């Protein structure tokens, strides 16, 4: 179709059209006649393929009429300009648009856009890559938001499910925003509420499977009330779930297997139902040998993804002490009941509980939260923060591409003017240019999806287990629809303004700009300068956010942990209650510790209830002798309780401040002793010596323990927390509590070299003592420390990447705008240098103009950052969201980038040859 002979009548109509161009001024014919004829040929071929016959004749008639009208209009505008009056503003004519459906022109517009973009492969590649970065980042983060926050829970009518926890406000004497529930609270709420269809109690523990059919192993078990499965409405795959008869204070143990455990340990044998299973746990009343009553379907796991089986939670309706809290609850709203109604009822019940039980329910009560939000936890604001950050990246990318499109449209003003002369109205030109923008967006979106596939894998590698429901993150229909919407919005954001400006091109402006290049160029630079300032503002906002997170993370890493993490290994044990009585557990840990201490490369070893950095809930409430009780109960004070064996402080490297440590002289049946840290001593004995004071913990009627020493603060609850801690003796605790906490302990080992070098020998020692005992886990303290800061490291890394991308895009934008300005002002610069301007002054002028545009963006960005970064307060550690140092440093970095990006075109401007510039013009 490209050869003239293949399109009938083209040669004749082309000659006739060329003759009609005489109505245009001579200047137009000299400059644009060839372009006008080429465009006429392209449009004729397109019309011939579309309609032929009568359609070609109509096209010729419209083209001839439009050429005559445009030529006369152009002569009239030039005559009025010579008379001193500007041409009147009037709407463009678009006869063709009125006669034809705009949608019918889309195929032709797409073909023309492909040809046009293929002639500028460098421009097309830069635009597509820029858009792909912005769209891909948004797609990747939204896939995380979709999977974690928007994907419904896999249960029937999951929106009706709620989580129920208890809270302690400062009015109660404590400050626990989210705390487990106690048995009396559970039974009271079940009996008194009217808004829940079903309520269930939920907890989880790790236990050892020792049934003899396979190697012993530790699994996570869900301890639930019999109503648990009815609340979630999940039927079993085989057998049954728990029933009311299974509940009770000390029920016969029954087990419901998870699908994975059933397949892995029992080979998917359906006859397993009705068989028995041996387990062991620290609490003997949980049961050991019990009946397998059912198997759950594949992928069902609650309350955590690693749950392998379920058994009944020992709940005693006769237990009336309201101080014990050890599980949480889930509920399903009754038909027709809204969450707001259930929440209002909860407030009413809590007010009545405060009257009925003033010693326990002043500042202490239950609260509701949607189950999905509860499971997501505090990752929700983090993901929304990242989504907002990538939104700014996309806006910066769009501003950058809009600048490129404006520059390209400036270079196509001749083409657009000629198309106007051929009768294309403003609407047709805008449609054609938006079609090109849409093609670029679609290509950028397609490449962005590929980028997001890689980005999601990187995101999952970086999150380090800190993002719940991470297994649901991926590309699905919702994510693809989101990407399509982003592509559409992107097309409008970066393509509409350039298209409208270019669509307004008239032949009069083409002639006028040819004579007044500098003036017209400066006017068009204003809008490009606005886009540049927007890019800089967005970039400074993102870089400030990344800077705050980086400073926060740096300060977090510099926190003194209070112990030595190097060359330290932690090994977790949970002895089966079936095999170990409390006294046998004490002998096991004593024997193991002594054997480990004499291993080569071992410096010291001891046992501790929890290694540092791994505690989560502050549950160590205690009372000080002689102090009045708190309003809500017998305990006046709050601190973390840590059980230690002999040598734990030396092994961990916790420094003694005054007094003494727990040692071999503190016999199991002797007077109870305790050691407190500096934070607890400062908080509760600010002007006293705590040595010799007595405290009571765990039981309100238990024995008093004498404080014998004060040690340095050690971070058991994370580097960012400063909870007070008190320590008590392992053997003494087992003795006076009758075995509480005896079987679940951790061995900490200080080595002379790499700690994992002794991992094998320790496993051999455990097998020698008890070949059926599995190790729960074994980790170096360096790994534990790294995992404890995974969440802030994850946020800092992603924000840093987005800020870096924004900074690069802003630099490219500055370079593009300044380079375009230099190119448009070559004639002016030549005149300046011909009149004696030095190269340095010309370069300085260009750099100053770039800085002037950037400073507007810096001011706007700083003002926006002051408002926006306040939402980051919860993510920052020891850093204010308006940190002056960060703001100043980021502003300096941005300005340095702007100066660097402006310097290259400024140097090119300073090397302009005046004679060449003037001769070119």
Helices and strands in order:
Elements lengths: L9 H11 L5 H25 L2 H30 L12 H5 L6 H13 L2 H30 L10 E8 L7 E4 L3 H10 L3 E14 L7 E8 L3 H5 L5 E2 L14 E4 L1 H8 L9 E5 L8 E7 L11 E6 L15 E6 L5 H18 L7 E7 H6 L2 H33 L1 H9 L4 H38 L13 H27 L3 H9 L1 H41 L10 E7 L7 H16 L4 E7 L11 E5 L12 E8 L3 H5 L3 E4 L13 E5 H7 L9 E4 L7 E7 L13 E5 H8 L6 E8 L7 H11 L7 E4 H8 L1 H35 L1 H9 L4 H30 L15 H27 L3 H7 L1
Parallel strand pairs: 4-9, 6-8, 15-20, 17-19
Antiparallel strand pairs: 1-2, 1-10, 1-11, 3-4, 3-7, 3-10, 5-8, 6-9, 7-8, 12-21, 12-22, 13-21, 14-15, 14-18, 16-19, 17-20, 18-19
Helix pairs in contact: 1-2, 2-3, 2-13, 5-14, 6-12, 6-14, 6-15, 12-15, 12-17, 12-24, 14-15, 16-17, 17-24, 17-26, 17-27, 18-22, 24-26, 24-27, 25-28, 26-27
Give an overview in words.
The protein is of the alpha+beta class and 921 residues long. It is built from 28 helices and 22 strands. It has a six-stranded mixed barrel. β18 (694-697) and β19 form a beta hairpin. α12 (379-411) packs antiparallel against α17 (517-557) and α26 packs antiparallel against α27. The protein is elongated and about 115 Å long. Mean pLDDT is 82; it is low at 1-5, 86-99, 282-287 and 514-521.
Keywords:
921 residues, alpha+beta, 4 domains, six-stranded mixed beta barrel, six-stranded mixed β-barrel, 28 helices, 22 strands, elongated, disordered N terminus
Task: Tell the overall outline.
Answer: elongated
> How much helix, percentage-wise, in residues?
40-55%
Largest sheet, spatial ordering of strands: 3-4-9-6-8-7
**What's the story with the biggest beta sheet?**
6 strands, mixed, barrel
If you compute it from the alpha carbons, what radius of gyration comes out, rounded to the nearest whole angstrom?
38 Å
**Total number of beta strands:** 22
Tell me the distance between the termini.
Answer: 39 Å
Spans of at least 5 consecutive residues with low confidence: 1-5, 86-99, 282-287, 514-521
Number of domains as seen in the coordinates: 4
Query: If you average the pLDDT, what whole number results?
Result: 82
Number of helices: 28
Specify the structural class: alpha+beta
Strand fraction: 5-15%
């Amino acid at each position: 179709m490209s050869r003239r002979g293949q399109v009938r009548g083209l040669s004749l109509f082309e000659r006739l059209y060329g003759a009609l161009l005489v109505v245009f001024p001579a200047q137009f014919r000299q400059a644009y006649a060839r372009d006008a004829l080429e465009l006429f040929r392209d449009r004729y071929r397109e019309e011939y393929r579309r309609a032929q016959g009568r359609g070609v004749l109509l096209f010729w008639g419209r083209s001839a009429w439009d050429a005559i009208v445009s030529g006369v209009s152009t002569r009239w505008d030039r005559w009025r300009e010579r008379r001193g009056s500007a041409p009147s503003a009037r709407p463009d004519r678009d006869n063709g648009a009125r006669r034809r459906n705009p949608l019918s022109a889309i195929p032709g517009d797409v073909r023309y856009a492909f040809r046009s973009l293929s002639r500028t492969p460098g421009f097309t590649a830069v635009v597509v890559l820029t858009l792909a970065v912005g769209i891909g980042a948004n797609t990747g983060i939204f896939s995380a938001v979709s999977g974690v926050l928007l994907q419904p829970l896999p249960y029937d009518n999951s929106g009706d499910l709620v989580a129920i926890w208890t809270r302690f406000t400062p009015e109660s004497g404590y400050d626990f925003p989210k705390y487990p529930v106690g048995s009396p609270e559970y039974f009271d709420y079940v009996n008194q509420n009217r808004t829940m269809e079903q309520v269930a109690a939920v907890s989880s523990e790790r236990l050892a499977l020792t049934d003899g059919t396979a190697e012993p192993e530790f699994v996570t078990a869900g301890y639930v009330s019999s109503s648990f499965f009815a609340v979630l409405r999940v039927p079993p795959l085989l057998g049954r779930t728990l029933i009311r008869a299974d509940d009770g204070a000390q029920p016969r143990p029954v087990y419901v297997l998870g699908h994975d455990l059933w397949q892995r340990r029992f080979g998917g044998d359906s006859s397993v139902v009705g068989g028995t299973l041996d387990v062991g746990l620290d609490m003997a009343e949980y049961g050991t040998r019990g009946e397998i009553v059912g198997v759950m379907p594949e992928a069902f796991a609650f309350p955590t993804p690693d749950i392998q089986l379920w058994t009944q939670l020992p709940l005693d309706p006769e237990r009336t002490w309201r101080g014990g809290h050890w599980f949480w609850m889930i509920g399903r709203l009754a038909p027709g009941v809204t969450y707001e109604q259930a929440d209002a009822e909860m407030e009413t019940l809590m007010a009545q509980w405060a009257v009925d039980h003033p010693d326990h329910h002043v500042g202490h009560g239950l609260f509701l939260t949607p189950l999905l939000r509860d499971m997501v936890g505090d990752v929700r604001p983090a993901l929304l923060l990242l989504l907002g950050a990538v939104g700014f990246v996309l806006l910066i990318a769009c501003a950058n591409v809009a600048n490129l499109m404006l520059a390209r449209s400036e270079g196509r003003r001749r083409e657009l003017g000629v198309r106007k002369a051929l009768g294309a109205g403003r609407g047709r030109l805008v449609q054609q240019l938006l079609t090109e923008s849409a093609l670029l967006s679609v290509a950028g979106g397609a490449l962005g999806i590929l980028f997001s596939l890689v980005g999601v894998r990187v995101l999952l590698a970086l999150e380090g287990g800190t993002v719940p429901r991470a297994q649901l993150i991926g590309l699905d229909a919702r994510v693809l629809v989101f990407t399509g919407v982003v592509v559409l919005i992107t097309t409008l954001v970066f393509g509409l303004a350039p298209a409208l400006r270019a669509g307004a091109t008239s032949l009069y402006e083409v002639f006028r700009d040819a004579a007044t290049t500098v003036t017209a160029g400066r006017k068009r630079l204003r809008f490009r300068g606005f886009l540049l300032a927007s890019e800089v503002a967005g970039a400074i906002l993102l870089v400030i956010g990344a800077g705050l997170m980086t400073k926060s993370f740096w300060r977090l890493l510099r926190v003194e942990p209070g112990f030595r993490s190097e060359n330290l290994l932690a090994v977790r044990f949970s002895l089966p209650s079936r095999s170990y009585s409390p006294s046998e557990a004490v002998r096991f840990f004593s024997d193991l510790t002594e054997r480990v201490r004499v291993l080569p490369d071992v410096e010291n070893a001891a046992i501790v209830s929890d290694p540092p950095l791994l505690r989560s809930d502050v549950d160590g409430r205690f009372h000080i002798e002689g102090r009045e009780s708190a309003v809500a109960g017998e305990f006046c004070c709050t601190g973390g309780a840590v059980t230690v064996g002999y040598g734990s402080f030396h092994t961990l490297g916790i420094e003694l401040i005054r007094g003494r440590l727990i040692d071999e002289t503190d016999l199991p049946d002797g007077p109870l002793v305790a050691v407190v840290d500096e934070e607890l001593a400062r908080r509760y004995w600010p002007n006293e010596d705590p040595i010799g004071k007595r405290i009571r913990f765990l039981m309100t009627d238990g024995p008093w323990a004498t404080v014998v020493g004060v040690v340095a603060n050690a971070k058991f609850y994370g580097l960012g927390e400063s909870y007070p801690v008190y320590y008590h003796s392992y053997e003494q605790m087992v003795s006076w509590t009758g075995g509480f906490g005896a079987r679940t302990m951790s061995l900490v080992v200080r080595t002379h070299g790499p700690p994992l070098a002794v991992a094998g020998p320790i496993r051999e020692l455990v097998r020698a003592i008890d070949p059926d005992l599995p190790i729960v886990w074994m980790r170096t303290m360096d790994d534990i420390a790294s995992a404890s800061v995974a969440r802030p490291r994850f946020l800092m890394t992603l924000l840093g990447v987005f800020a870096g991308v924004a900074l690069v895009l802003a630099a490219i934008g500055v370079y593009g705008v300044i380079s375009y300005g230099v190119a448009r002002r070559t004639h002016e610069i030549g005149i300046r240098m011909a009149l004696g301007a030095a190269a340095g002054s010309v370069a300085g002028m260009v750099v100053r103009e770039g800085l002037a545009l950037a400073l507007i963006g810096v001011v706007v960005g700083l003002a926006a950052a002051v408002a926006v970064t306040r939402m980051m307060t919860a993510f920052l550690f020891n850093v204010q969201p308006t940190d002056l140092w960060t703001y100043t440093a980021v502003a300096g970095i941005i300005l340095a980038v702007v100066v660097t990006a402006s310097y290259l075109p400024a140097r090119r401007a300073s090397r302009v040859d005046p004679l060449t510039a003037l001769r070119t013009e």
